[in-house]
Design a protein that fits this description.
Elements: E1 13-17, E2 20-24, H1 27-30, H2 43-46, H3 51-57, E3 64-67, H4 74-84, E4 88-93, H5 99-116, E5 120-125, H6 132-136, H7 138-143, E6 147-153, H8 157-160, H9 163-166, E7 170-173, H10 179-193, H11 201-211, H12 215-228, H13 236-242, H14 255-269, H15 273-285, H16 290-305, H17 311-326, H18 330-344, H19 350-364, H20 380-384, H21 424-443
Parallel strand pairs: 3-6, 3-7, 4-5, 5-6
Antiparallel strand pairs: 1-2
Length: 444
Amino acid sequence: MDLFASDTDSEKQSISVNGTAKEKSPLADALRPKTLNEVIGQDHLLGPDGILTNMLGHHTLSSLILWGNPGTGKTTIARILAHETDLHFLQISAIFSGVSDLKKAFDEAKRFRNHSGKGTLLFVDEIHRFNRAQQDGFLPVVEDGTIILIGATTENPSFTLNSALLSRCQILVLRRLDEQALSLLLSRAEQQLDRQLPLSKNARNDLISMADGDGRYLLNMVEQIILHAKNTILDSKNLTRILSRRATLYDRNRDGHYNLISALHKSLRGSDPDAALYWFARMLEGGEDPRYIARRLTRFAAEDVGLASPNALTLAIAAWETYERLGTPEGEVALAELVVYLATAPKSNAVYKAYNEVRAIAKKTGSFMPPAHILNAPTNMMKDLGYGKGYEYDHDTEEGFSGQNYFPDEMQPQQFYTPTNRGVEDTIAQRLSHWNQLRKKRSV
């Protein structure tokens, strides 16, 4: 049964089949797979060597969290698992349910087990919507076997589910449906409708692209085509007149946000301007604030490009200021220019590494005084204490370099910054090497 959920069989819709309007269930419901073999796009879970295939083969179904984009088959897989394992099936949605609803579900599962001896598969849609206390409510009934929990989520479980619940569940990642899977689903829809969709080859490809990996959205668009298309073949232009492209999956505060900024950073660090531009555009198309991207690009200029190309930081600030002056969309071009510059610039994180290392040392040696010879002596008392005594003014030396010690007396001089041989840092490395030679001569 489907506890607390509407009966999808009662949802009817008029679809023209062979030119005749008939009352039918929504196409997505009519084509819902009845067996695991009918599920498409998830061979890593349901193929011959798939995790779920092995579980069912050994009759050892455990509690699961199904993590994937909308329209990838999470609900379908849960229903089929209940049927394949002969478990009592209950379904709730975390959006519409609270503690009392959970208690009802748990009580029903206990009654069913006492009455029939069978377990219950409890499918919880949008499980990440439950708060920490509600998630804790699952622990005792999962542990004592009252329920097998199948949770579905579009959010990263490691961010949205507590560790206690995660430790009792196996995380399975559902993949977005690729072009081949969506094409197969489209063929199944045509078989169900007993007709070919009135689409040109290009329009058919565009339809699959518009679904963006979401099988349910694809079938919803097929219904719109059947309802609105006339007795003509639709080309790409006419197709877009009756359909809209699926909204890009991107949440500025959640997993998509972190995934894409990570992809942008890694592409920049890997010196791939084309991939970097792609992820930059994906973030903007998803609604990301360009100022956030500008801030992260500026950090990248300091952290990953560094002194290999000192102009990177200057250009980053300039691009950021340009966006502030021009706004969207003109200012985004300046950010795109910055993306390409950073991707193609020589890279060095030598300063970043040195900074992190020296911070750790500074915490341990926080009370060490500077050596007396580099301290100013504005009073006679300070002069008597030796402040400034023996200091050599570098500009007055032959090389413009005195080679004196500037570390605390309690510390041996150390090297934190090690420049690379890339870009400007190659010149810096040569300069430092020359100064080190002068220091050695001074110490002899």
